[in-house]
Amino acid sequence: MSDKLNVDRSVELYKRACELVPGGSQTNSKRATAYAPGVWPIYFDSAEGCRVTDIDGNTYIDYVLALGPITLGYCYEPMDEAIQAQLGKGIIAGLLSPLEVEVAEKICNMVPCAEMVRYMKGGAEGTSAAARIARGYTGKEVILNSGYRGWSDIWAAQAGNPGVPEAFEASIEGFPRDDLNALEDLLKKHRGNVAMIALDVAGGTAAPKEVVEGIRKLADEHEALLMFDEIVSGFRMAPGGGQQYYGVTPDLAVFAKGVANGMPLGVVCGKREVMECAKDLIISITYGGEALSLAAASVCLDIYKNEPVQDHMWNQGDKLREGFEAAARANRVPFRCYGPSVMHSMKFEYDDADLAGKVWTLFLQETARRGVLIRRGGLLFITYSHDDEAIEQTIAVVAETLPIIAEAVEAGDVDDRLLGGEVEESFRSFA
Ligand SMILES: Cc1ncc(COP(=O)(O)O)c(C=O)c1O
C-alpha cells in the first residue's frame, strides 16, 4: 500500500474553491480542513449504494453520507425512478402538485405528532418556521433550546454570533438537554413567556427516556409548546422518528435529512390546533411544492413503511460498534462508541485533548487510505445499503488501523505519521 492516498485533483480544486467560496464549501462541517487535509478526499465524482468515488478515482465505503440525509443509499433505484418519472412531468409549476397532499397524508400516518404539514427546503428553514409558529400560536417570545437548530438569526442568537442583532439574544436561552432542574429554573425565570422548548432527543447521545418524559411534563406545566428537532433522528431511530422511539409526542416537529434520501426537503409538522396558525403567518417559500423532492419523499416514506430500513440500520450499527470496540480492546486503544447505534458518536479517550485530535487525524488518514470514510467523532451514519460485506470490510479496516494508532501513541510519534496539513475546527454548536 502506498504511503499517501492520492487526492491531488481534490486538493487542487479546493484551492480554487477557497478563492471563490468563503470557507471553501457550502456546509461548514464539510470543509476539507475539518478532516485530514491533503490525505482525505474532498470532491466526489459519483456515488452508489454505500460507496462514494472521489474525483481522483478512489472508492470508499461511506459513513459521512452527506451528514445524514442518505438513508436508503446513493442512487437507490426506486428513488431514482420516481425522480426521473417526475422530471418528465415537470419540476414545479404555478399550479400545486398533488404530491403535496399525498406526502402530507403519508407523514401524518407515520409521525405521531403530525396532523398538519408544511414543506421547507432544509432544516434551518424548518426549525425557524416552527419557532415562528410557536411564537405566533402562544403569543409568547422566549425559546428555550438545547443544541444546533440551523444557521438562522433565531438560533444563532443563542451563540451571540456576529451578524445577529444583540436584541435577539434575549429571546432565546440554551439549556443542557439532560438537566431537568436547569430547564425548570429557566421556565421559572421566564415564567409566562416561554413559547417553546426545542431539542434534539438524540444529538450525540440519546436522551434518557425519563428526561424526554420530564421535558414533556415541564412543557405542559408551564404551558410552553414542545418541539422535537428530528432532522437527524427522524426516519432513522424509527419510521416515526425519536418521538415514536421514546413514545413521547411533541406539539411540533421538524424533519429534513432523511425524509427524501438526499433530495432537499424539510417538513414542519405538528398538532392541528398549533399548525393551523401558520395560515396567518408570513411563512411562505417558492419551492415548498417542488415536485422532484416530493416524488422522492413519497417513495421513500413507502419504503420506510414497508421494509425494515430502521431495523437494518440499528443492526448494522450494533455490528460496527462491537467490531470497533473489540479491535480497540485488542489493541489497548482508549476508543469508545456511544449514543444510538443508528448514528453513533465515537471518542478517543486520551486525557490530552491535543493528542486525541491528532489521533483522530491519523485515524482518518489511515482509514481513508484503506477505503473507508468516517467523520471525526461521528455521527457514524449507516444506510439500508450497508450490507454485511461492507460492514465486515469496515471493521477489518478499523482493526488494521487501531494498531497503528497504538504504536504511534506508544512511540510518541503521532505527529511524524501525519502526512497532511493542519486541521481546523469548522463547526460550532450552540449549547
Ligand atoms: C439537529 C439539526 N438541526 C438542524 C440542522 C440544520 O439543518 P440544515 O443544515 O438542513 O439547515 C442540522 C444540520 O446539521 C441538524 O443536525
Helix vs. strand class: alpha/beta
Helical residue percent band? 25-40%
Q: Supply the CATH architecture of the largest domain.
A: 3-Layer(aba) Sandwich
Shape: globular
The unique ligands bound to this protein are: pyridoxal-5'-phosphate
Q: Describe the strand arrangement of the main beta sheet, using strand numbers.
A: 4-10-9-8-7-5-6
Rg over CA atoms: 22 Å
**What's the CATH superfamily of the largest domain, by name?**
Type I PLP-dependent aspartate aminotransferase-like (Major domain)
Biggest sheet architecture: 7 strands, mixed
CATH topology of the largest domain: Aspartate Aminotransferase, domain 2
Short summary:
With 431 residues, the chain is an alpha/beta fold. It has 14 helices and 14 strands.
SSE blueprint and pairings:
Elements: H1 8-20, E1 44-48, E2 51-54, E3 59-62, H2 77-87, H3 99-110, E4 116-120, H4 123-138, E5 142-146, H5 153-156, E6 172-174, H6 180-189, E7 194-199, H7 209-221, E8 225-229, H8 241-246, E9 252-255, E10 266-270, H9 272-275, H10 291-306, H11 309-330, E11 335-338, E12 343-348, H12 353-369, E13 372-373, E14 380-381, H13 388-411, H14 414-417
Parallel strand pairs: 3-13, 5-6, 5-7, 7-8, 8-9
Antiparallel strand pairs: 1-2, 2-3, 4-10, 9-10, 11-12, 12-14
The structure holds pyridoxal-5'-phosphate.
Pyridoxal-5'-phosphate (PLP) binds next to helix 4.
